[in-house]
Design a protein that fits this description.
Layout: E1 2-4, H1 8-16, E2 19-24, E3 27-30, E4 35-38, E5 41-43, H2 47-58, E6 64-65, H3 66-73, H4 81-95, E7 102-105, E8 109-112, E9 117-121, E10 140-142, H5 155-167, E11 170-174, H6 181-196, E12 199-204, H7 213-222, H8 233-240, E13 245-250, H9 256-269, E14 273-279, E15 288-292, H10 306-310, H11 313-325, H12 336-345, H13 350-363, H14 365-370, H15 375-378, H16 393-402, H17 406-415, H18 424-430, H19 438-450, E16 455-456, E17 465-466, H20 469-482, H21 485-505, H22 513-521, H23 523-533, H24 540-556, H25 560-575, H26 582-598, H27 603-620, H28 623-639, H29 643-660, H30 665-680, H31 683-696, H32 713-727, H33 731-748, H34 751-768, H35 772-789, H36 792-808, H37 812-829, H38 835-848, H39 852-869, H40 875-886, H41 892-912, H42 915-931, H43 935-947, H44 956-973
Parallel strand pairs: 11-14, 11-15, 12-13, 13-14
Antiparallel strand pairs: 1-10, 2-3, 2-9, 3-4, 4-5, 6-8, 7-8, 16-17
Helix pairs in contact: 2-4, 5-6, 8-9, 11-13, 17-19, 17-20, 21-23, 21-24, 23-24, 24-25, 24-26, 25-26, 26-27, 26-28, 27-28, 28-29, 29-30, 30-31, 30-32, 31-32, 32-33, 32-34, 33-34, 34-35, 35-36, 36-37, 36-38, 37-38, 38-39, 38-40, 39-40, 40-41, 40-42, 41-42, 42-43, 42-44, 43-44
Length: 974
């Protein structure tokens, strides 16, 4: 205990009503208001820093030794030199750019430079905005320890607590061990003491072993005279009476009932006393206001920007504590992500971060991060002077765990199985062998929350809880040592199998978006459950069923690589069993097929998987599963440029869909048939199919085919219709449909749907109308999409697009190299998507490089591929391109060959009902006729085609046709 006195000179000035202000260079030190101002604006400064600055100002530039400063600021108290240095740093921080006016004489003391003048004002102190209680002449007592280091990252918490204490007489700081409850309580109390006008006491209950000792400890610390032999909460309260006190009642959790009774009695009988308690469990007394101490601010995951990492308080604490042990430590760009990851994995808990910093000072942040799985052996670097339970991370958690009753210890151990948090139902599943009633279990969860061992997850719309990572790691150790691990792991795996399975494969009702989001939140729990299922001690049968049930969720979340790996493992396990489960095999094969599609697995492998799945589904008479498989088979045929096979699959799907009588299948059938007709070149019928699809489309509400929910079929159909409309000469309508479908897909935020909308509508329409900026944006969007989905299929398709766009923009070498590489990948995997179209673009690139022979060979490959697979929608343009290539050669033979190609292209365009292709071919033929000095024939070829258009006149092809016809007309008039 010590006494704090204000300087006698300052007390006399207050008595005389003098108001002194020291001034220098825009700075003002107002002693009466206890305020430092810069250009009239108050500057934040702690009470100790203000006292130091006041002494230096009043010393008129003379050197003030360290001993003299400590004696004047902490009269009668022995403090360490580093305490003074902390507050000197605070003074310099307050001075900002003018910190140089505080001069250090190394080893001796400090002086304040500058000509500080004094302005005296006779205004009585109470006439200015001064609280007369802020500078009391009488003595107040405190035993609060001086701060030995800067409190980092708690500015907002300190301010909030000060506001709480101004409105409430009882405030309990609660939170898990090591969160910094005591540090924060003492910081607030030290800041309040100079203006509190009363005594401030710290009563630490940590060393007490029994509840009866609590009143005695309290009375002893405050020096109370109880006036009798009775020591009880009531006698303590009577001894306090009406005194104004601020009491920090520290470390209450192990004596929570005794501490609560004492605090409540004092608050009831002592109207001028306020209590700040720290406890891992709230006191639950009348008038108590609970402040849950938050963790320090940690950087978000995958944060790489150094400035953003350094802005977070957890990182700042880590660096400060590491530097305290290694003054040469300088965090650099390579180590900062490791520091950020350490702080994230330690949940921003200050004590754990200090332990990690102590290790980092000798091992380095990278090594500490790599060994955090062994955190309880690693993080043992507490200060020797710290209380035993704060000297290692394990000891900190042992203290909390040992205070729990047996049933709550058991529950905490078992809850650690949930890597992603848990619901009440999930907790019940792992406690089922304990015969817990639901209400009793909920009460125990509430107790663990109250004791800061479990936290409520406020990010979800339903009640959900989680364990901080460090507490979970500790509880997992306890679970492993308890012998309950296998029972709990099995209960967890069975719970998630039974949660997701019926919704995915046992119900005709499609899971809602909210339900899919709910299942998605369990992904880390499912991963942990599956890891156990397929381990040496697990149950693979549960794992197979859980994998099959959860596959649609992985796909919905676009985790296609994980879906592929998990389903392959489950199938390997399933097919090795003698008792083969065909329904599960069918579900797994379907999921694997979808995943293989997006990860660019071998088409040959995928077709084998689908053949097995189809055989199993048909053998069981499972119409729903058969439709799902045909749905995927259509996609495989379509994306490998096997248009004839795709049409056959679409017709097979249509026949089976008609048998079900399900109206929700009609739009899917129309889209399949429409797509098949479009790629086969039958644009008139394709347009009708897509329009029927949009007319018939309703949002699916009653179907079990959950894989179809991964795409908005309406937007896919609308984007495909956009391309057909352009081909049909309805240019503006096509552009409008493409733009609208893109905007809707972006707004919906569903990435797979966005990919298909870009593929069918946005990109091709942009390129067909020579809107190269829009085409480049589509390429960039697809690249981002491919990266976020980890989808090689989309990535390779984006490279094909980019190569074609570069060639169209005249960058022949870059475009040809990129396109050739992407097409090599297509050929190697079998995913020859839009193969004739991209080969035609490569031929243009090669021609641009002067490689005409190779260009003609490539064009012939494109035509052969179109004929082989039946993907003929682009044939008119390929033939036109071949004709243009022939024109680069000189001679009647080449002109004849070019003319032959143009007329063949014209015939195909007319046959396909594609006026836009017909216009391009007519333009090429007209240019040839002009070259042959046959302008009249050129006009006769071009005018009838141009005159059939009713829109799109601002697009390049129609502008070129209009300009050519104008020139030809002027030539004829002349």
């Amino acid at each position: 205990m010590h006494e704090v006195k204000h300087s006698e000179g300052l007390a006399r000035m207050i008595e005389q009503g003098q108001h002194l202000v020291y001034e220098f260079g825009g700075w003002e030190l107002d002693l009466a208001r206890r305020e430092l101002r810069s250009s009239g604006v108050p500057v934040s400064m702690g009470s100790r820093a203000f006292a130091i600055f006041s002494v230096l100002v009043q010393s008129a530039g003379k050197l003030v030794t360290k001993e003299e400063l400590m004696a004047r600021v902490w009269p009668g108290v022995i403090v360490e030199e580093n305490t003074l240095e902390v507050h000197i740093s605070a003074v310099r921080k307050a001075l900002g750019a003018d910190r140089g006016i505080l001069s250090t004489s190394f080893g001796r003391g400090y002086r304040l430079v500058g000509d500080w003048t004094v302005r005296k004002e006779s205004t009585p102190l109470d006439s200015v905005a001064v609280d007369p209680t802020r500078m009391p002449v009488q003595l107040f007592q405190t035993n609060l320890p001086a701060a030995t280091s800067e409190v980092i990252g708690r500015t907002a918490a300190v301010q909030q607590l000060r506001e709480f204490l101004s409105a409430h007489r009882a405030v309990t700081l609660t939170g898990p061990g090591g969160i910094g409850k005591t540090t924060l309580a003492l910081e607030v109390a030290r800041g309040l003491f100079p203006t509190f006008s009363g005594d401030c006491w710290l009563v630490d209950l940590l060393s007490l072993s029994g509840p009866d000792l609590v009143p005695s400890m309290f009375a002893g610390v405050l020096g109370l005279k109880l006036g009798s032999n009775e020591i009880s909460p009531e006698s303590v309260a009577r001894a306090i009476g009406g005194k104004k006190l601020l009491v920090v009642l520290d470390n209450c959790e192990h004596l929570i009932e005794a501490a609560a009774r004492l605090a409540e009695t004092i608050l009831r009988l002592c109207p001028a006393t306020s209590v700040v308690a720290t406890s891992r469990e709230v006191l639950r007394i009348e008038g108590e206001h609970v402040f849950r101490v938050p963790p320090l601010d940690v950087p978000p995951r995958q944060e790489e920007d150094s400035g953003n990492i350094l802005a977070h308080s957890a990182v700042q604490l880590f660096i400060a504590r590491t530097r305290a042990l290694d003054s040469a430590f300088v965090p650099h760009g390579d180590s900062l992500p490791s520091i950020a990851a350490i702080c994230q994995r330690l949940d921003g808990i200050p004590l754990a971060i200090e332990f990690a910093a102590a290790r980092a000072a000798t091992l380095g942040p990278e090594l500490v991060l790599s060994r955090l799985d062994e955190r309880f052996g690693l993080l043992t670097g507490g200060r020797r002077t710290a209380m035993p339970r704060h000297q290692t991370l394990r000891a900190t958690l042992d203290w909390s765990y040992d205070l729990l009753p047996g049933p709550e210890q058991s529950l905490l151990r078992r809850l650690s199985i949930f890597a992603a948090g848990f619901t009440l139902e999930a907790a019940s599943a792992v406690m089922s062998d304990q015969c817990h009633a639901g209400s009793a279990l909920l009460e125990q969860i509430a107790n663990l929350v109250a004791k800061s061992l479990v936290v409520l997850d406020g990010s979800t719309p339903t009640s959900r809880w989680r364990l901080l990572e460090t507490i979970r790691a500790y509880a997992l150790e306890k679970l492993a040592n308890s012998g309950e691990g296998e029972v709990v792991a099995r209960g967890c795996a069975e719970y998630f199998r039974d949660l997701v399975g019926p919704a995915m494969h046992g119900s005709q009702v499609l899971p809602t978006a909210d339900e899919m989001a709910r299942y998605g939140r369990e992904i880390d729990n499912v991963r942990a459950a599956l890891d156990w299922c397929f381990s040496a001690v697990g149950d693979s049968a549960i794992g197979v069923a859980l994998t099959a049930a959860y596959a649609p969720v992985w796909l919905d979340l676009s985790f296609v690589v994980e879906c592929r790996e998990r389903t392959e493992r489950a199938l390997d396990c399933l097919e090795s069993e003698s008792n083969f489960n065909k329904p599960l095999a069918s579900q797994l094969h379907i999921a694997l097929a979808v995943a293989l599609l997006y990860t660019m697995g071998s088409v040959e492998q995928l077709k084998k998987v689908l053949a097995k799945a189809l055989s199993a589904a048909e053998g069981q008479g499972d119409v729903g599963a058969t439709l799902e498989i045909l749905f995927v088979m259509y996609g495989v045929d379509h994306l490998s440029s096997e248009s004839r096979e795709a049409q056959s699959t679409a017709e097979r799907f249509e026949r089976l869909a008609l048998r079900t009588g399900d109206p929700a299948l009609a739009p899917i059938t129309y889209r399949f048939i429409g797509n098949s007709l479009h790629y086969a070149g039958e644009q008139r019928e394709a347009q009708k199919c897509f329009e029927r699809m949009l007319d018939a489309y309703v949002v699916p509400t009653y179907q079990r085919h959950t894989f179809w929910s991964h795409y908005d079929l309406r937007l896919q159909g609308r984007a495909a219709l956009a391309r057909v409309l352009w081909l049909r000469g309805l240019v503006d309508q096509g552009v409008c449909q493409a733009q609208a479908s893109l905007e809707e897909a972006q707004a919906a935020g569903h990435k797979p749907t966005l990919g298909w909308v870009l593929h069918y509508g946005a990109y091709p329409l942009a390129l067909m109308t020579s809107d190269f900026d829009a085409a480049a944006q589509a390429v960039a969007m697809l690249k981002d999409l491919a990266t976020s989905l980890s989808a090689p299929f989309w990535r390779n398709l984006a490279h094909c697009w980019e190569g074609k766009l570069l060639i169209r923009c005249g960058e022949f070498e870059r475009g040809s190299v990129l396109l050739r590489t992407a097409l090599d990948t297509c050929e190697r995997t079998g995913w020859t998507t839009c193969y004739p179209e991209f080969l035609g673009a490569l031929a243009e690139g090669l021609a641009g490089l002067g490689q005409f022979t190779e260009a003609l060979d490539t064009i012939d490959r494109a035509l052969a591929a179109a004929e082989r697979g039946g993907e003929r929608w682009y044939v008119a343009e390929i033939l036109r391109t071949k004709g243009e290539l022939w024109l680069h050669e000189v001679g009647d033979q080449t002109l004849s060959a070019a003319e032959h190609c143009f007329f063949a292209a014209l015939e195909v365009a007319r046959e396909h009902g594609a006026p836009s292709w017909e216009l391009r071919v007519a333009l090429s033929l007209a240019r040839l006729r002009i070259r042959q000095d046959r302008p009249n024939h050129a006009r006769q070829l071009l005018a009838p085609v141009y005159n059939r258009f009713t829109e799109g006149f601002e697009t390049p092809d129609l502008r070129s046709a209009s300009a050519m016809l104008q020139s030809l007309s002027l030539g004829l008039l002349n």
